[in-house]
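Slide 14.
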Amino acid sequence: MSAILDFLRDRIVATTTGLFSHGPAPLEHTLDHPGDPGLCGPDSVTWPVLGDAAAFVGGVRALLVQSAHPEVVAGVQDHSRYREDPLGRLSRTSAYVTATSFGSAPEVEAATDMVRRAHRRVVGESHRGCPYRASDPALAAWVHNTLTHSFLVSYQQYGASPLSPRDADRFVAEQAEIGRLLGADPLPRTESELAAWIEQHPAIAASPGLDAAIAFLKQPPLSWPVRLGYRLVLWAAVATMPADLRAMMGLRVPPGGAAVGALSIRFLRWSLGSSPSWHLALVRTGAPIPDGVFRQPLPQEAEEMLERRVVPLPV
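Slide 15: predicted structure.
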């Protein structure tokens, strides 16, 4: 039985990591910056939150909610190749989140510079005649704040252990620093302020771009085993969304779907362990490595760095 479980876990790891291998490796050279805590650091709330399997739910939820802004989704529809290269876009988005949250200072700077350059080309007009620029602080704030909120809501619902109100506020404040680097404004700094800003946002509305995005997110072009797992994560994400927003998007959770989605996240946590990017960042900074949290192997260079750590002699 143990061998069967190990085989199952290895297959899930290979399949899941393969989905994110269609773009640059975000922390490929992170060990070139030993001791650099980056923007968040080992004592942050960001590292354990984004290192948990619940982040998969947060990522899907963010794509859904972001589509509710007509100008934001128009920019995606007009300028993104997500329909032709969905895994490429997934990999690039994941690489950005990984680099800005877990990376060293040079990696954070490189990731945000790349996004700012890409955003300069994203200009146009939505279906309702409103101009958009991806570099507009207000539009950047919608994208960033909904991503932060989605990660937080998903972790509070499905994470390994829910955050206290104080740590939830810390997470929002830490993520606001990343948004600041992209020129996003406004950037709420507490959980309650962030939730209110999103729920009361005046731009939320139905649009042709929203319909196209939801249709794609419901049926992405994935192989059937991956599509099954994705569907469970989608149910888990939709279950965390406000009822009025779900209704506008034509989304519903089937009976028992939320519970099945929650079980799927527990299964992913058992299979994958916590994020290898979090593990690698802890090695880079020389921080303690928690027991029983990580399952996937480290690169050889990281293993060697761990072996060189000085172990204090017993008193």
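Speaker note: The beta strands are 123-125, 131-133.
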